[in-house]
Structures are given as C-alpha cells and as structure tokens.
User: What shape does this take?
Amino acid sequence: MDALELYDAAACERRVPEPPKRVEAPVRTPFERDRARVVHAAASRRLAAKTQVVGPETDDFVRNRLTHSLEVAQVARDLARALGCQPDIAETAALAHDLGHPPFGHNGERALEALSAECGGFEGNAQTLRILTRLEAKTFDDHGSVGLNLTRATLDACTKYPWTREDSEDPSGVHADGSPREIRKFGVYDDDLPVFTWLRDGVAGKRRCVEAQVMDLADDVAYSVHDIEDGIVAGRIDLVGIDREAVWQTVREWYVPTADDGLLDDVLLGLQSQGSWPVTPYDGSRRGLAALKNLTSDLVGRFCGAVQQATFAGNAGPFVRHGADLVVPETTTLEIAVLKGIAAHYVMRADDRVELMVRQRELLTDLVHALHDRGPDALATPFADDWKEAVDDAARARVVIDQVASLTDVSAVTWHRALVVS
Assistant: This one.
C-alpha cells in the first residue's frame, strides 16, 4: 500500500477548505503542497541568519538554522520512508521545526521567556505553531490570518510538545547550544488554543504522532553529529585526543547524570569501531574533509539504522500518525549523548561564547523595552496592525514578542542600534 493511502480525510483536512486548482501541473498531494508552503515562507528564509550554535557571521563553514533545518529534513525524510510513513509530512515538520527560534537561538529564547510573563511566556516550538497558523501570511478567513493553512497531519507533526504551558513540566538539563533549560517546554500559547484543539482532534493526552517523533530524532541526530563536524573544522575538537575525564563530566552534568566512566568508555569504544572514525588529527586537506564527511554520513546511518530496526521489532505498525511509536535503543541514546558531550566541552563551554551569550540577552531585553515604549510606530507593518487590533496590554506585549522573535541575529543588532543606542 502506498504511504499516502494510510492517511484519511481528516489527516488531509485544512482549517480553511481549498478547492482543487483548475490547473496544477504536476498534480501534487496535500502534503507536497504543505512542504512547498514552508519552503517558500519568509520565516524559512530568515533562518539563514539565525544562530545554530555559533553566530552565522563567524565563519563561512559553520551551520546556521537554515542549513541545520535542511539537514534535519533529509534525515527525517529518509527515516520516514524507511518506516513507511509519509516522507513529505516528516520532511515538512523538520523544515519547520526551528521557525519559532528568535535571534541568538536558545539563548534568545531564554531572554524572551523572562520578558513575556504577562502574555503567557515564550517557547520556540509554540512560536513555530503561531507562525504556521497565524503570522506567516498565506490564507485568511472571516476572522483573519490562518497562516499557511497546512493540513492537520502536517501541523500535528510540527507539534513537538503537544501541550500547554500550564501542563508542562519543570525545566532541566541544557539545550543543544549549551544554554541551560530554564524555561518550560510547551507547544501552544493560550490564545492559539483553537487551532491546537483543531489539529489534535481525536487525539487524547500528550502523545506525539510518529511523524513528530521522526522529526525530533532527526533533529537530535543532526545536531549531535554536525556540531562535532563544525567543531573539528574550526580546530576546537580533535577526536584522536579526547580528554575523557573532562568530557565525561560534561556528559553527566548536561545529558546523562547516571552514566559512569566505564559505561561511557564502552560507548566511545563502540563509536570508535566505526570504520571511518579518525585515527589521525584533522589536517584541513580535501582528503581530510572527505574523511570527515564520511564519518558524519556513517554516524547518521548508524543511529537511524538502529532506530529503524528497533522500531520494527517493537511495533506492528503501520507507522502513521498515532498508530505506532518510534523506539530508540539505549545504546543509540548514549552514543548521541557522548557526541553532544564532546561538542559541549570543547565548543559550548568556551569562555568567549559564555560572555557573548550574556550580551545577547541584554540586547534583546533592551529591544523589547524600547518597542514597548514606542508602540506601533516602531514596529513592522504587520505587527503594527496587530498592535492596533490588540484588546489589552497582554495582547500588545505578545505583539512585541512576536516582532522581536521574527528578527534575525543581524537585524536584532541593527534594530537595537537604531532604537536603543542612537
């Protein structure tokens, strides 16, 4: 059976019905149309100038949020196809998964959360849903913008945390970029509950659809492997000479508190058994870069292959929407944690980066306060319109947060210079 046939009419439904176009060549499925809408969204283009781990302006090689999202999308598509679910849904969720990130990545998210208590907090995944269903202009109904008007199945796959702030758990651990998890993880703001209720129709509790699970794993795999690659090319990481004692301490502090040295040594030995694991330091040559690329490819294949095998062994399927769950072996979880720990120790904990993060949060704080004081005259036209339609102070506060979250790293600095420094 073709994967598309496993998705019923409810999965393909849009909030605003769209009649078939008279001429559409080639004919596209509903989920192919969803993917195209995310690819062409302005919010997607802005990811090119938003921080992944280090700022996109620091080096021509370093990844930004857009290149990271493209890589996550490729991993998600391949894994979805292997599992038998609709690849376009998983790929679209991966392309969209970071749309809600503000300037400066998780560090900016932390700053905006501290500034948005009166309007229900800030969370990058909740902001992604808001962009897809409201802020990104594509379709309108009698009540205003409904965003890209994606199908129910695609929006569900984009919802990494299908619950409200009130239902979220206390934060713990750290983000991939090394910033502490100080904010609650949730997927919807209170004033976006109508669309959330619609997209979760028929789903009880907090269970994520399998396509969202594929997206989440692809994200985890991509940044654990690619942060290592970036760190090696930048000269910060040498896989031949790892300081195990220091790295294992970071792994315990950030990712796996209960892992002892012996367990982590065994996990590293498993990774080193991969034929492409380096035995000599990276030298910057084309041959060296090719070897590094082979290592990243092999690691992605290693992780996804293990998950595919475990998932088939643990579920009868079909692997569509809420009919099954992804199974991630403990060994794979630990291997990913070891890679994260290596990158965290040698890149994220660098003193220069920690100092920069403090300045970034101060900049966003200044900018939010300045926009609150100046009101609609200082906002971009769509957000100025939202301000004028806002019914109370909380709604106006949300408009300011939406505006700042939409900025890139560079434009946030430019706006700050114009509104605060000048």
In short: The longest strand covers residues 140-141.
